[in-house]
Recover the amino acids of this structure.
């Protein structure tokens, strides 16, 4: 009927009119109108705020006309053919308006209709894109990944020709991969091991993803396994990373982490390998010094003392700006000692050239090792010079500042050697045969000798303030007085006196009077040594000798004790170059040559 044709034409013209009005008023339908009013605000899955805008009356009328075109049935074949050819548009445009205005639920429902009914049209491809991007706008990564994967698998979506569909599938594949990557990143905040697995899955599922994402996924997978306590798995992935990206800025620190992880599971050889590879491949890396140190440290545990020493020395010689250079270099010496004496001797000479003042304790220990080395090898001349070097350098270093206990102990040992020699000379007795010579020998010559010993004692105690050798000095001082007393007690009587018992008794009585004051002074010095040990709650072999000497003179008041009762601490700092050799005083020699008894006490009698 003519009226029906007019009605059909009017319906078409109404749709076109609304479409034109929208374009004239707002321009492109895929853009939000500049005067759009916010209807409400919703929180997205990502926690952000998203605005939903009111549809204008013009938009509403247009949607009504488009919906009417979807369900119309024109009698006019021309109109009907045109309507059917544009059905996908009638479905698509209203859906687009809803999406653009933020009405995602309604918009997605309509877009899904476009895809379901007209999958091979360009509108279907646009619809799929709008659905995915709407989930992106909401921060709904799960649905982004889900729908992008779904549309990627539609081989006939959006075009009649396979080429167009393939390109669209690639686009959705990239979107899907990106969403999965972001989902894995979010898992880092929740569960490290699940995140690590997600990154590994990403690497398998999206091998053609952008390289920046593949690199990040590999790094993050390893990192999350490490955080989750899976050091072995983390190392496998870290090793893949440095092999695939050897020049990347992230690679140098990974050598250190790989090495640390191997150490944590006690694979020390592998740990050393990666520490040393870091230094070799990236010598200017901020981690290079620590890596070289750790490699040396682990080699000590592996028993590779030479390798450890070489690493410590390289640490200083190739990286000289390190603040702990001296301390690390010193560690090399301890390792060289375990390799051999000659190697250690060579090292300590190099140490003294490189660090003559940095650590007084270490400087003194180096000289001490050299002195002991020459003593062990029987080179007396070199040993004597080394001991002199100790004394000279002690004075030099002391003038610059306070020395540590180890340095004082070594300095005191060098000083004590002179006191020991003086004592050994003092106790060598050779009685003169003449009466007047004997008097001079016992009351003048010997007192001069022990006066020198007493001065040494005082200088040693005040200069070095070392318990071990202070106790040695006090012992020698006491032993010197007692040895002097014994010289009186054991002086031989002339034959003419020895033959007469009464004269001999008087002779011995006079000698005893001269010897007892010396013995009393000796006992007093030994008692002072014991008191010092008690006050400081410390012991030494010289305290043991002191007790033994007192016991010999007075066993009732000075019974022998077991050493373990008092303990065996002999120095405030344990020596690092081996135990100190403690010289032992020679026994008092009983003179065999007889000499006449003195007739009267001479001045200076104790």
């Amino acid at each position: 009927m003519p009226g029906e044709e007019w009605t059909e034409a009017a319906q078409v013209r109404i749709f076109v009119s609304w479409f034109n009005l929208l374009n004239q008023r707002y321009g492109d339908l895929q853009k939000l109108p500049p005067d759009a009013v916010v209807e409400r605000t919703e929180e997205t899955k990502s926690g952000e705020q998203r605005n939903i805008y009111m549809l204008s009356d013009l938009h509403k009328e247009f949607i009504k006309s488009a919906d009417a075109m979807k369900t119309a049935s024109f009698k006019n074949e021309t109109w009907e053919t045109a309507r059917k050819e544009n059905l996908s548009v009638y479905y698509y445009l209203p859906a687009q308006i809803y999406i653009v205005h933020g009405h995602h639920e309604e918009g997605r429902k309509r877009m899904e209709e476009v895809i379901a009914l007209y999958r091979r049209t360009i509108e279907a491809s646009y619809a799929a894109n709008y659905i995915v991007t709407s989930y992106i706008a909401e921060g709904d990564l799960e649905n982004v990944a889900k729908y992008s994967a779904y549309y990627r698998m539609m081989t006939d979506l959006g075009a009649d020709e396979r080429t167009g569909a393939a390109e669209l599938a690639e686009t959705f594949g990239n979107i899907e991969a990106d969403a999965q990557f972001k989902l894995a990143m979010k898992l880092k905040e929740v569960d490290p091991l699940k995140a690590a697995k997600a990154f590994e899955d990403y690497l398998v599922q999206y091998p053609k993803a952008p390289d920046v994402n593949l690199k990040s996924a590999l790094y993050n997978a390893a990192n999350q396994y490490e955080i989750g306590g899976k050091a072995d798995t983390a190392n496998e992935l870290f090793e893949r990373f440095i092999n695939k990206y050897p020049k990347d800025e992230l690679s140098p620190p990974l050598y250190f982490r790989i090495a640390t992880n191997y150490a944590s599971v006690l694979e020390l050889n592998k740990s050393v390998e990666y520490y040393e590879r870091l230094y070799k491949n990236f010598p200017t890396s901020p981690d290079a010094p620590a890596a070289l140190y750790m490699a040396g440290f682990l080699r000590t545990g592996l028993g590779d003392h030479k390798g450890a020493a070489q690493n410590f020395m390289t640490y200083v010689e190739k990286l000289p700006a390190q603040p702990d250079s001296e301390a690390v270099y010193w560690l090399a010496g301890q390792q060289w000692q375990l390799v051999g004496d000659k190697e250690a001797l060579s090292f300590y000479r190099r140490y003294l050239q490189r660090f003559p003042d940095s650590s007084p304790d270490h400087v003194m220990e180096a000289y001490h090792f050299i002195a002991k080395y020459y003593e062990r090898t029987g080179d007396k001349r070199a040993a004597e010079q080394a001991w002199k070097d100790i004394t000279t350098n002690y004075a030099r270093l002391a003038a610059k500042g306070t020395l540590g206990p180890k340095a004082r102990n070594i300095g005191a040992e060098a000083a004590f050697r002179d006191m020991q020699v003086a004592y050994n000379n003092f106790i060598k007795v050779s009685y003169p045969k003449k009466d007047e010579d004997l008097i001079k020998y016992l009351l003048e010559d010997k007192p001069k000798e022990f006066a020198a010993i007493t001065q040494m004692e005082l200088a040693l105690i005040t200069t070095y303030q070392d318990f071990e050798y202070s106790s040695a000095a006090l012992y020698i001082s006491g032993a010197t007085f007692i040895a002097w007393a014994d010289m009186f007690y054991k002086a031989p009587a002339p034959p003419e006196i020895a033959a007469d018992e009464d004269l001999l008794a008087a002779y011995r009585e006079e000698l005893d009077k001269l010897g007892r004051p010396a013995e009393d002074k000796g006992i007093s010095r030994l008692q002072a040594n014991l008191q010092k040990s008690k006050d400081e709650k410390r012991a030494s072999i010289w305290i043991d000798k002191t007790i033994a000497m007192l016991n010999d003179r007075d066993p009732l008041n000075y019974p022998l004790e077991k050493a373990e009762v008092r303990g065996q601490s002999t120095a405030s700092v344990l020596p690092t170059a081996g135990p100190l050799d403690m010289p032992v005083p020679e026994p008092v020699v009983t003179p065999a040559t007889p000499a006449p008894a003195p007739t009267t006490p001479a001045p200076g009698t104790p």
